[in-house]
Amino acid sequence: MPGYVRSRRVTVAVLLLVVACCCCHMQPVACRSALYNTNATRKEGMLNVHIISHTHNDPGWLSSFTQYHRTVTLDDHTIGGVEAILDSVVLQLLDNPDRTFVYADLAFFVKWWQELHEDTKATVRHLVQQGRFEFTGGGIVQHDEATSHYSGMIDQMSLGMRFLQEEFGHSPKIAWQLDGFGHSNTEPLLKSMGGFEAVFFGRSDHADMAQRKQNRSLELIWRGSEAYGSETDMFASQYPTGNYGPPSMQWFFERRDDYGKFLADSVQDDPETGTYNVQGLIDEFVQRAEEWQQAVLGEDNSKRHSTPEAPMHCRRLPRR
The whole model's pTM is what? Predict the structure, then answer.
């Protein structure tokens, strides 16, 4: 979600997904939408879908760390920029107290935090205290589990957790391994020893995932060490999609190509444009939610909604 998103767009982004179901917040509150008749309370007798607004940002992939962090101007429009994601999140949380956001992978956050004005830092701390800006994972990155040495896992987690303690007095309880490749029981071992209560991940072997979906065992108790026994048991859950994104690429707001041109298959929520497609996307979402419910335990369905990694206009928060 690099960049600033207009208030109405973000409201629709969250509420659109819950027309036929209900969001889960810390306390029941009424959603502020003039377009959709929804609320954030649980409704018995219906499939309740929990939507967690979050973002995943790789510190290194096709560009450098700094390039991903900063906004880039190309052909008179703004693209990229993880700092723009964080700026936008804070602005939108302030705009509507019903909104919440989850953030992991602190590499970019630390850099962003170091450049903030003290008044803005106080605002973010208040949002964290309210539970509306929540940290998961707690490490500098989402470390790989299969090939990393345990000392590296400990070091990078320690750096991140120390930062959160010093700045927010906060220790995450949920591990957030959305984009890791490969798994080892070192993960639940270290996390259980660090006070974590659960781990969520997106990827696994396709054959293992297919079998687990069939027998509804995507949720499990993962034991980190037979020697330490139940002390290292941790609740683990895998997303039914095998990833962490929205139901399809159409679930992107204001998605653009590399040159800033709006793509026709993004969400079109204005009937006057002639390309209105909200009802079709609602139908698709309900269908997917019903499918995923057949693969998980319990009567609810939890969909982690990834914010779109697409170029958008941005508003900057005050720097030093």
Answer: 0.75
